Structure formats: structure tokens, C-alpha cells
UniProtKB/TrEMBL annotation:
It comes from Alkalimonas cellulosilytica. The keyword Ion transport does not apply. Keywords: Aminopeptidase, Hydrolase, Metal-binding, Metalloprotease, Protease, Zinc. The gene is pepN. One of its GO terms (molecular function) is alanyl aminopeptidase activity. The lineage of its organism: Bacteria, Pseudomonadati, Pseudomonadota, Gammaproteobacteria, Alkalimonas. Residues 444-534 form the Peptidase M1 alanyl aminopeptidase Ig-like fold domain. The keyword Protease applies. CDD domains: M1_APN. Its cofactor is Zn(2+). This is Aminopeptidase N. PANTHER family: PUROMYCIN-SENSITIVE AMINOPEPTIDASE.
């Protein structure tokens, strides 16, 4: 194994490029033969040796121009193919054999569920043939696929289909040509039998585009929403960014075996089926939301990622941060803007802040990487999107769009860096962004402290702001960042709002002519990805929660209240009672919900474990869990009549997925979640909703309400659910997750049973995640047990999974890495688990990189 670290500072431009790539696949589950004809060109005349990447390939033959090379004329190791080169342009013909069926890593070309599917990002193409497998080598691809017609009626690849014919041996040959030069990571091949849902789209300039969705047989009906979401994405990108699609066909394939959410391969997206297949009776409102957002994300990549791509993988945020920003903006225009922002901020405050505080801390542009797959992170994606959002805040919509236009004008068809992007923004706006660029280099979460000082005579309010970023595992020293601070001043004499751009460690902001009661709401809409420390009292926070015109500010003030109350609950053991003013606010919300019902539902929610946990350096697991329990109990008891009334008032909702219905369901089910705590008397209500529900959102809400309240109806309903849905794996995944999140010790036997379930498979990432991600992330009580059983279960799982699928095992290990955040007893148990992993012979690079970092400064 290589175990070598690659550094951004070592970047060298490619010495050769590949002008055209002609691939022929003779598909066979265990013996696929790939013939690659590469037209190469030497860029650096000094070079006399060519080195191609390759992994787990069996080389059958190699031609240099027309000459068959003998074994002693090149050097072939397990990672590379090297040969001497004398000419400036030449052709290589490489025949390799691969075994897609044995490929359980789901990287490269794999065979699962009766079809062939490829996944090449980041470095999977080298598992298909020897190649310059790096994003700054752009080539025109022509792909010929030959396969058995009966089993694989659809043979797909990037671009336009230029030929299709039946061969006389029961096989079909199809040939695809992609006119746009692209790096190898955007290559895709799919072969199989599918249901096909077709649509079309007329672009702004009047061109017709065929939209083809290929899904598992029998599931065609469930792709309609995704097809529609694609049309909305295409329209939105034209209207907001002026960007139009560039090929005649756009294909989406949904597969059940997939390592991540989806992949933006040029003209042929491949999706995890859970992000395509939805219908009201099988998918929740959240599932619908995710489908729309991911369909948008992959579509938006066509410009931000494909037309302009990354120079090297350290620049991943160039395409991912920007594309997440774009998909967030799209979602915000499609649904509740405030709630979307709340959810995006939750991701930063929980997962991203946790990553910054972990041994895996890295800037949005990482400086060193062992396994690239480990850097598809919330930092690169979601913090990357926040960095783009800050640019948008600084430059405004018009300035930002001018920057985008210049970026495409300069770089269409190129592989570029994050710096190139910022430079385009800078030049289009004549706005100096040199200090801003530090966001790309510096990891860690800045802490912004605000202190108020009021002078009654002058009616002057002074805010002292201080920023400080603590050292992270990867970087000891931190400098001051550019922080766009949006604020709103709540004052009887009307609200002032504005933007303050903080640049130094310490700055002051002065408001004149304001009353003593004026309240500054800082960091509105989370205008910078920082932790805000303020000096508000509970009373002041509740005032913001009631009075602020901005929904996000109201929610955020309540979040701060919850932290105060958690703190008090921890110091007063179980005697803490939530204040009356809080109940009055909740009463008000229940009686008169805001127009935005989804926002009301958010405001009525007690934060989850992870939200509380991220505010501590040492996470008091048990205290948090018992405080949450007590908060929920108090709400359900004090507000029982209001909860019931609100529930009843919103119990009838049309099934269709739209903003209003989603909001009403969210509100109703929030009430139900509290009502379930009433024990036996709630049973009728729960069963009634379960049995009458016409949609999965409402059914699942009953199950999770039962789970959260430890209601005895849980097991009966779970059994009923299993019988109803045993044929549908995506629905069954929800059932797996609910079982794994069960907060009692029974969960261990339960998980053993789940793994024996006929539909469970260690090869399928969706199944494995449904059980084990849910266990490790949604069951903190059992995962963090003091007897270590939770850590042990996860470790056993990782040891089993790593040889099958390292990408998935390296993702699942995350909660163990942060051992330093827990008490000494738990620390010892978690370290023991990490040592067990690191002692395992043959552990993957993926897992090794993370485990060794976690153990580095033990
Ligand atoms: N580029 C993909 C996206 O963000 C994500 C991705 C990277 C991916 N590597 C992958 C997806 C491996 C599946 C498997 O849309
Ligand atoms: Zn992406």
C-alpha cells in the first residue's frame, strides 16, 4: 500500500496530455475487456518518460503507435505503467481486463443488481484503464460499448449516441461521442435493463433537449418528480445565472448501489436511487426536498465543475462549494427560504464545526491529502458554500453575477484553481479580495465575541467585536479573517440594518441616536461561518425571538436561549423549570402559527443532541440527553391543550408536496412528537394517524414520535410497517434506521437481527448506512455507553466493511475520531477502538488516514 501524502505545494502541470480517448468496452460481469486508444501529446519537451496511473488492472497488451511492445519495453507496477517516449505526438493502444463483479468498492466499473455502472470521481478511472487520471488533462471521449442485448438493452455513456447496431452473436454495439473535452473523472458508463421515463426541455434559446431517466424496472412512476425538478433546475439556472444546457440529451440513471448521493458525469448523471425515486406513499417531504436539491446540484455542475473544472483535487471546493451555494439558492427559491437557511446553518454548526474541532480539520482548500475520497467533506462542500455566500454578500447579486460571467469568459473549457475564481470576482468588481483569500487557506472556526456598551447621554451604543480562531489539528497559527457581519438593530424608533465588514482582530461599531432598549441582532442569516459569543440576557433573547422581523434571527435567538437553559439545567440537576416567558412564546406560536408553518415548526423544536453537543469542548453526553428529555416533558405537559388544538387544526392536509403542505405537516407532526409523551392516552392519536396516513411523512412521523417518547406502540407499528414495505428497499432503510436509533440496550440484539434480514447486504452502502450511520449518529445514548459496547459494535462493523468498501467505512468512522471531546473514561474506550482499527493488517488508505490522524497526538 502506498500510504503516501500528496501536497498542494508539489503541484506540477502535466508533462503530457491526451487529445483524444477512444474506449471500447466488451462487457462481461467478471471479464470485461477495455481497449483504450489514446492520442498523446508531449507538453514538456524535456520529458522522456510517460507514467500512466492504473489500479487493479490486468494488462493484456500495449501498442506504441502500431508496434506491439514486449514486456521489457515498459514497466508495469500495481499503480503505474511507465514507458520511454521519443516523439511529441504518439498513439497508445492499451488493452486491459477488469472484474466488475469483484469490485465491491463501487469505484471504477462495477457490476451490481444486474447492471454495470461506473464511478470515476475522484480517482476511479484508473481502475478502468491506464490513464493520466488527473483533472487537468482534458480529452475528447468516444466510447463504444458491446454487450449482450437481452441482459443489457441500454448501453449508455457521455455525450451523443452516434451509432447503434446489433451484432450477429446476440450482442449490441453502441457508440457515444462527447464533443466537450473533459477530465477522466467525468467519464461514465452504464449498461443494464431499466424503466425509462422520458421528457424534454426547450432551452431559453429554443433548442430541444431530451431528458431521459433510467431507473430500476417497475420504478418508472417514481421518477416523475425528479424529472420535473430537473426542468425547474434548467429554467432556474437560465434565469438566475444566465446558463444554458449544452448537449442534446441529459440522462440520469438511478442505482441502488452507490457510495454517495450522486455524480455529475457529463450528460450522464448517476444517482443513488434514494435521490431520484420518490412518491408520496414511499417518501417523506425531506426525501422530496433532497431529490430536488441534488438533481439541481448535479445539473448545476454542468457549468460549475464540468465546463470549468478543477486543476487538481486540492481545488475541489472550486466546484463543490460553488455548486452547493447554487443548489442552496435554488432550494431557497423553490421553498421556505428561512427554513432552508436554518437547515444549512445547522449543518455548519454541527457537522462542520465538529470537523474543524477534530483531527481531520482542514481548510476548504486542503493542503495535503492521502486519500482524496476522504476530502469530500462538509468543510469543502458546506463551508466552501459559505465562503461563496460571503463573496455574494460582499459584492451583492449584481456584482457576484458579473464575477461569474467573467469567470466563464476567462475559463470556459479549462481546469482552474480557487484563486482563478476569486480573481474573476475581484476583477469584475474592482474589489480587493486579497485579505478574503485567507478563507481558502485557514482551517478552524472563528469565534466572534461581541460586547455592548451604552452611553445614555449620547444615546450611543458601541459594539466591541473581537475575532479569534483557535488552533486546529492541522494548523497552529491563525490570522484575522474578513467577516461580513450583517446586522439589524431592533429599536422602537424603527429597525436599522446594515453590513459591517470586519477585517481585524478587534473592531468597534458605533450606533448613534439609539435608545437604551435598542438590541443589535448580529450575524443575521449567519452572514459568516463563525461562532458568535454575545452578552444577551434570556429576556433580551426572548425579545428577539418574538419581535425580530427576520425569521432566522428569531430562530437563532431561541437557539441561544436553549443553550442558556441547558446550562441551567445542568447546574440544577433535574429541578430546572423552563421560564414562563418561554411558555408564553410557545403558546403564542401554537395558537397563532406564523404564515410560514415550517418555520413555526422549527421554532417549536427542542434542539437535537448534536446541536447542544457542539457548544462544548468536553461533551457532557448524559447531561445533554437528560436535559433534552426534561425539556420535552415540560413542553408536552404545560402546553398539552395548545398542542392538541394545533395538531387538530392542522391534521387534514392534502398529500401533494408543496411548500404549504410541507409546512403544515411539519407543524402538525411537531405537535404529535410532544403529544406522544403522554403515554397511553396518546395511543389512539398515534394509531389513528398511522392508519389513516396517505403519505410517508405522516406515517414516519408516528414512528419517530413513538421512538422519541419510548412509546410502547412502537414495536407493534414497526412490525406492521415491515410487513407493508418489505418489498421496497428504500422504505425498508427507514425502518432499519428507526430500529438502530432505538435508545435502549435492546438495540444491540436488534442490529444483529437487522444484519440477517434478507434485504440487508454488506455490499450495499444504503443498507449499511441505514443501520450503522443511524446507530452512531442518531443514538448517542447507546453509542456512547459507558461499557463501550457502542464503540465496539461500530469497530466490528468497520473491520468487516473496510475490505468490502473503504469509502463507506472511512465515512462511518467519523464519530470515533473526536475522542478528545469526551470524558476520560469514554476517551479510553474510543482510543482502544481506534487502536483495534489501526492494528488491523491491510486496513485501507481511506481508513488509515483518519485513524492515524486521530491517534497522532494521543
Ligand atoms: N461530485 C459528486 C457531487 O458532489 C460527489 C462525488 C464525489 C461522488 N465522489 C464520489 C459521488 C463518489 C459518488 C461516488 O455531486
Ligand atoms: Zn457536487
Amino acid at each position: 500500500m502506498s500510504r503516501s501524502v500528496k501536497r498542494l505545494s508539489d503541484y506540477q502541470p502535466p508533462g503530457f496530455t491526451i487529445d483524444s480517448t477512444d474506449l471500447t468496452f466488451e462487457l462481461d460481469a467478471t471479464h470485461t475487456v477495455v481497449t483504450a486508444v489514446l492520442e498523446l501529446r508531449r507538453l514538456d519537451p524535456q520529458l522522456t518518460e510517460l507514467s500512466l496511473d492504473g489500479q487493479q488492472l490486468q494488462l493484456l497488451s500495449l501498442h506504441y503507435n502500431d508496434k506491439l511492445l514486449a514486456a521489457n519495453e515498459f514497466d508495469c507496477t500495481s499503480q503505474q505503467l511507465r514507458l520511454k517516449v521519443t516523439e511529441d505526438t504518439f498513439r497508445l493502444t492499451i488493452r486491459t481486463q477488469i472484474n466488475p463483479l469483484a469490485n465491491t468498492a463501487l469505484e471504477g466499473l462495477y457490476y451490481a443488481n444486474g447492471s454495470f455502472c461506473s464511478q470515476c470521481e475522484a480517482e476511479g478511472f484508473r481502475r478502468i484503464t491506464y490513464y493520466l487520471d488527473r483533472p487537468d488533462v482534458l480529452s475528447v471521449f468516444r466510447t463504444t460499448i458491446i454487450a449482450d442485448t437481452a441482459h443489457y438493452p441500454y448501453l449508455l455513456s457521455n455525450g451523443n449516441k452516434v451509432e447503434q447496431r446489433k451484432l450477429d452473436n446476440g450482442q449490441t454495439l453502441v457508440c457515444w461521442q462527447d464533443p466537450f473535452p473533459k477530465p477522466s473523472y467525468l467519464f461514465a458508463l452504464v449498461a443494464g435493463d431499466f424503466d425509462l421515463l422520458r421528457g424534454d426541455y426547450q432551452t431559453r434559446s429554443g433548442r430541444m433537449v431530451a431528458l431521459d431517466f433510467f431507473v430500476e424496472k417497475g420504478q418508472g412512476g417514481k421518477a416523475a418528480f425528479a424529472l420535473d425538478a430537473l426542468k425547474r433546475s434548467m429554467r432556474w439556472d437560465e434565469q438566475r445565472f444566465g446558463l444554458e444546457y449544452d448537449l442534446d440529451t441529459y440522462m440520469v440513471v438511478a442505482v441502488d448501489f452507490f457510495n454517495m448521493g450522486a455524480m455529475e458525469n457529463k450528460g450522464l448523471n448517476v444517482f443513488n436511487s434514494k435521490y431520484v425515486l420518490v412518491s408520496e406513499d414511499t417518501a417523506t417531504d425531506t426525501d422530496f426536498f433532497n431529490v430536488e436539491s441534488i438533481i439541481g446540484h448535479e445539473y448545476f455542475h454542468n457549468w460549475t465543475g464540468n465546463r470549468v473544472t478543477c486543476r487538481d483535487w486540492f481545488q475541489l471546493s472550486l466546484k463543490e462549494g460553488l455548486t452547493v451555494f447554487r443548489d442552496q439558492e435554488f432550494s431557497r427559491d423553490m421553498g421556505s427560504a428561512t427554513v432552508n437557511r436554518i437547515h444549512a446553518v445547522q449543518v455548519i454548526r454541527t457537522a462542520q464545526f465538529a470537523e474543524d474541532a477534530s483531527p481531520m480539520a482542514h481548510p476548504i482548500r486542503p493542503q495535503q491529502v492521502m486519500e482524496m475520497n476522504n476530502f469530500y467533506t462538509v468543510t469543502v462542500y458546506d463551508k466552501g458554500a459559505e465562503v461563496i455566500r460571503m463573496l455574494h454578500t460582499l459584492l451583492g447579486e449584481a456584482g457576484f453575477q458579473a464575477g461569474m460571467r467573467l469567470y466563464f469568459e476567462r475559463h470556459d473549457g479549462q481546469a482552474v484553481t480557487c484563486d482563478d475564481f476569486v480573481q474573476a470576482m475581484q476583477d469584475a468588481n474592482h474589489y480587493d479580495l486579497s485579505a478574503f483569500r485567507l478563507w481558502y487557506q485557514q482551517s478552524g472556526t472563528p469565534e466572534l465575541t461581541m460586547q455592548r456598551h451604552y452611553e445614555p447621554q449620547q444615546q450611543r451604543l458601541t459594539l466591541r467585536l473581537n475575532q479569534r480562531t483557535a488552533a486546529t489539528a492541522d494548523q497552529p497559527d491563525k490570522a484575522a479573517l474578513v467577516l461580513p457581519v450583517r446586522y439589524q438593530l431592533l429599536d422602537e424608533s424603527g429597525n436599522k440594518s446594515g453590513l459591517f465588514v470586519m477585517q481585524e482582530h478587534n473592531e468597534t461599531l458605533v450606533f448613534d441616536g439609539v435608545s437604551a432598549q435598542a438590541l443589535p441582532v448580529m450575524l443575521e442569516d449567519f452572514s459568516a461561518p463563525v461562532r458568535l459569543k454575545h452578552d444577551y440576557s434570556e429576556q433580551e433573547l426572548l425579545r428577539i425571538a418574538m419581535e425580530a422581523s427576520n425569521g432566522f434571527a428569531r430562530w437563532d435567538a431561541l437557539q441561544s436561549c436553549w443553550m442558556l437553559w441547558l446550562d441551567q439545567a445542568m447546574h440544577q440537576n433535574n429541578d430546572f423549570r423552563l421560564p414562563d416567558a418561554f411558555f408564553e412564546l410557545y403558546q403564542q406560536l401554537l395558537k397563532l402559527p406564523l404564515d410560514d408553518k415550517a418555520l413555526t415548526a422549527e421554532l417549536l423544536k427542542v434542539p437535537e443532541y448534536h446541536v447542544f453537543a457542539e457548544n462544548f469542548q468536553q461533551i457532557p453526553v448524559d447531561a445533554i440527553l437528560s436535559a433534552i428529555h426534561s425539556f420535552r416533558q415540560q413542553i408536552s405537559q404545560r402546553l398539552a391543550p395548545e398542542l392538541k388544538a394545533c395538531y387538530q387544526q392542522h391534521s387534514v392536509v392534502a398529500v401533494e408536496y408543496n411548500e404549504m403542505n410541507v409546512g403544515i405537516r411539519a407543524l402538525k407532526n411537531r405537535c404529535l412528537d410532544y403529544l406522544a409523551l403522554h403515554g397511553q392516552p396518546a395511543e389512539t392519536l398515534l394509531l389513528q394517524q398511522y392508519n389513516s396516513a396517505s403519505n410517508m411523512t405522516d406515517k414516519l412521523a408516528v414512528l419517530s414520535a413513538c421512538l422519541h417518547s419510548a412509546h410502547p406502540a412502537f414495536f407493534g407499528l414497526m412490525q406492521q410497517f415491515a410487513t407493508e414495505w418489505q418489498h421496497d428497499v428504500l422504505v425498508l432503510d427507514k425502518w432499519f434506521s428507526l430500529h438502530a436509533a432505538q435508545p435502549s440496550a435492546q438495540v444491540f440484539e436488534q442490529i444483529t437481527l437487522l444484519c440477517q434480514h434478507p434485504k440487508f447486504s454488506w455490499q450495499n452502502p444504503n443498507r449499511v448506512r441505514a443501520v450503522f450511520h443511524a446507530f452512531a449518529m442518531q443514538n448517542p445514548g447507546q453509542f456512547h455507553r459507558m461499557d463501550g459496547r457502542g464503540y465496539q459494535l461500530l469497530t466490528d462493523t468497520l473491520l468487516k466493511l473496510d475490505p468490502i468498501n473503504p469509502q463507506v467505512s472511512a465515512r462511518l468512522v467519523t464519530p470515533l475520531l473526536s475522542w478528545q471531546r469526551f470524558d476520560l473514561e469514554r476517551q479510553a474506550l474510543m482510543k482502544a477502538a481506534l487502536h483495534r482499527l489501526s492494528a488491523q493488517p491491510g486496513i485501507s488508505d481511506d481508513l488509515y488516514e483518519k485513524v492515524s490522524k486521530a491517534l497522532a497526538n494521543e
